[in-house]
Automatic annotation (TrEMBL):
Family affiliation: Belongs to the cytochrome P450 family.
Cofactors demanded by this protein: heme
Membrane topology: Peripheral membrane protein
Organism ancestry: Eukaryota, Metazoa, Ecdysozoa, Arthropoda, Hexapoda
Name under which the protein is recorded: Cytochrome P450 4C1
UniProt keyword terms in alphabetical order: Endoplasmic reticulum, Heme, Iron, Membrane, Metal-binding, Microsome, Monooxygenase, Oxidoreductase
Chief place where the protein resides: endoplasmic reticulum
A molecular function GO annotation: oxidoreductase activity, acting on paired donors, with incorporation or reduction of molecular oxygen
Provenance organism: Trachymyrmex cornetzi
SUPFAM superfamilies membership: Cytochrome P450 (SSF48264)
Pfam family for this entry, one: p450
Length: 76
């Protein structure tokens, strides 16, 4: 869309416009906040259970990312 001009730009802009409406972006933020809270609680528990040892956060971040994506796809 950045490289388009004229009618094609206008057409494509109208197609993606609703995606960036404030109410939809607000729902994205709500899902992001909820999933981030869950991630934080899971990491806190894992750190507590590991007694100060190193924690592999990759699986937690991976799951949180998928939860956020799936949670936001539900709004389309």
């Amino acid at each position: 869309i950045l490289m388009l001009l004229g009618k094609q730009w206008f057409h494509d802009r109208k197609l993606i416009g609703p995606t960036f409406h404030f109410s939809i972006l607000y729902q994205f933020a709500v899902v992001l906040s909820e999933k981030t809270e869950i991630l934080t609680k899971c990491l806190e528990k894992k750190i507590k259970d590991n007694s100060g040892k190193a924690v592999d956060i990759f699986p937690f971040i991976n799951n949180a990312t998928l939860d956020i994506i799936c949670g936001n796809v539900a709004y389309f």
